[in-house]
Amino acid sequence: MKLLLHQCCGPCSVYPVKVLKAQGHELGGYWYNPNIHPVQEFYKRLETLHAFDRAQGIPLILDET
Questions:
Q1: End-to-end alpha carbon distance in the chain
Q2: What is the 3 state secondary structure string of 17-64?
Q3: Core-most of 10, 33, 35, 40, by most CB within 10 Å?
Q4: How many CB atoms lie within 10 A of CB 13?
């Protein structure tokens, strides 16, 4: 089954991605987190998420509005 997973950062995604992949799901990531402040924290989380998703082969949809 294809699933779109809302992700707030890389570290928070490790366990859900592991479990969902083990169950045979095909994952896509979705980033929408306008509530993360300060802006440095926003970009730090986004950077770690990019690295994690690349390593896991997960395509990422960004919504930075």
A1: 28
A2: HHHHHHCCCEEEEEECCCCCCCHHHHHHHHHHHHHHHHHHCCCEEECC
A3: 10
A4: 22
| Residue 34: both structure tokens together | 């306008």
Give per-residue pLDDT as tens, 11-21.
Answer: 999 999 999 99
Average pLDDT over residues 23-46: 95
Question: Other CB atoms closer than 10 Å to residue 46's CB: what's the count?
Answer: 20
Which H or E run includes 7?
Answer: none
Contact between 36 and 7 under an 8 Å Cβ cutoff? The reply is no
d(CA 28, CA 21): 11
Contact yes or no for 28/2 (Cβ under 8 A): yes
Q: Above pLDDT 90, what percent of the chain?
A: 94
What does the block give as tokens for 9?
Answer: 């950062």
For residue 63, report the phi and psi dihedrals to the nearest 5 degrees.
-125, 95
